[in-house]
Design goal:
The chain is α/β, with parallel strands linked by helices. The chain is about 45% helix and about 15% strand. The N and C termini lie far apart (about 55 Å). The structure holds NADPH dihydro-nicotinamide-adenine-dinucleotide phosphate and magnesium ion. It is an enzyme of class 1 (oxidoreductase).
Length: about 400
């Protein structure tokens, strides 16, 4: 039996992962589940999957939760906080860790999983954006197997020659093409973007996802973060990675080889496909995703991204090229700005403004330890909060 720990089990990726795992109770056993605020869902998952450990990271009174665990005679040990996450990420009996916490909060436990040499199904792109070099070096040194869950990176992984090694530049590859749907505002008149609401930004045309990544998709900061993620996973410079708008979200990304061949991976936009691929790699299992009906899709379109509409793309590409502290600052600024937008404190277009201004204040240097990364992260959050407050007043 493969033993799995799911970090961020109550989120969109966590739930999709459990949906796939539930099909194979004889192959996979859930050893640990973690949740932050949605304790009702976490309890329901504990009842269904009976893990050995459950971790709660949010600030709650856990009496009721503990009573419920007892009442249902669940044998799980309850752990708290970030230490609990790090602990279950490195449990000796666990061979596979699904890193599906959103944002910088997922960095430490993803890194722990890599340091413990696990098979790591990586959804938490922010950990690579923040600490790519460190993360990939730890993976190499500790023999961790990194399997990308982000659909674009999973697609690229599937289009590469199959030895499953992330962090090594693939042979014969000229370019990676990251596809992007363009999100809900691809064709919205530019003068309306200033006043779009969080609900409009979270209404993605093709994918169902958590709120933070939905807003990132609407600004296209998500694609910028994915550019940085791809640089680290596939050891390619940002100049050799192109972004292509493909509104149908059927092609999930492409690899162009020196001979002119372009390989793509296609499928319905449903995260259970990359999750099932990464869980079962190098084999294949059913994921529950519908067959792709290309005739019904009709046509596939491709466009160059409009950098006036999506300034976050330019800002992220600059941060990718600069490297070092810049991607850390970018991620922190974006997390603060997205949260402020979701709380309706700043406007949609302010998200990119906050990122731009934080990067302008950030000194260029290369953090070489987790502590140094976290100190850039903290400082950038302070800048971003100040800038967001100034924007609030306008
Ligand atoms: P969700 O917001 O749906 O879920 C996030 C998970 O993280 C939840 O389990 C949440 O707990 C937990 N969490 C939130 N804050 C904290 C914290 N401070 N400490 C510990 N745990 C926390 O996000 P998604 O599932 O959409 O995304 C997860 C990651 O996967 C992100 O990095 C995203 O970029 C990436 N990703 C997601 C895709 C998608 O389709 N959803 C596609 C590709 C990548 P709770 O809900 O209990 O509060
Ligand atoms: Mg993606």
């Amino acid at each position: 039996m493969r033993q799995i720990a799911i970090l961020g089990a109550t989120g969109s990726i966590g739930c999709s992962t459990l949906d796939v795992l539930a099909r194979y109770p004889d192959v996979y056993r859930v050893a640990a589940l973690t949740g932050h605020s949605n304790l009702e869902r976490l309890l329901e998952q504990c009842r269904k999957f009976r893990p050995d450990y459950v971790v709660v990271t949010g600030d709650h009174n856990l009496q009721n939760f503990t009573d419920q665990l007892r009442k249902c005679r669940l044998p799980c040990e309850l752990l708290h906080g970030a230490e609990g996450l790090d602990y279950v990420a490195a449990l000796p009996q666990v061979d596979t860790v699904v890193a599906a916490i959103v944002g910088a909060a997922g960095l430490s436990s993803s890194l722990e999983a890599v340091r413990a040499g696990k098979r790591v199904l990586l959804a938490n792109k922010e950990s690579l954006v923040m600490s790519g070099e460190l993360f990939m070096a730890e993976a190499r040194e500790n023999g961790a197997l990194l399997l990308p869950v982000d659909s674009e990176h999973n697609a690229i992984f599937q289009c590469l020659p199959g030895d499953g090694k992330c962090g090594v530049r693939p042979e014969g590859v000229r370019r990676l093409l990251l596809t992007a749907s363009g999100g809900p505002f691809l064709n919205t008149p530019l003068d309306q973007l200033e006043s779009v609401t969080p609900d409009q930004a979270c209404a993605h045309p093709n994918w169902s996802m958590g709120r933070k990544i939905s807003v990132d998709s609407a600004t296209m900061m998500n694609k910028g973060l994915e550019l940085i993620e791809a640089c680290h996973l596939f050891s390619m410079p940002p100049q050799e990675i192109d972004i292509v708008i493909h509104p149908q979200s059927v092609i999930h990304s492409m690899v162009e080889y020196f001979d002119g061949s372009v390989l793509s991976q296609m499928g319905n936009p449903d995260m259970r496909t990359p999750i099932a691929h990464a869980l079962s790699w190098p084999n294949r299992v059913e994921s529950g995703v519908d067959w792709l009906d290309l005739v019904k899709t009709g046509s596939l379109e491709f466009h160059a991204p409009d950098l006036d509409r999506f300034p976050a793309l330019r800002i992220a590409a600059d941060a990718a090229a600069a490297g070092g502290a810049m991607p850390v600052a970018l991620n922190a600024a974006n997390e603060i700005a997205v949260e402020a937008f979701l709380q309706q404190k700043i406007g949609f277009l302010d998200i990119a403004r906050v990122a731009d201004k934080v990067l302008a204040k950030t000194e260029q240097w290369t953090p070489s330890s987790l502590d140094q990364v976290l100190s850039v992260d903290q400082q950038s959050r302070i800048y971003a909060n100040e800038i967001a407050e100034q924007l609030c007043k306008h």
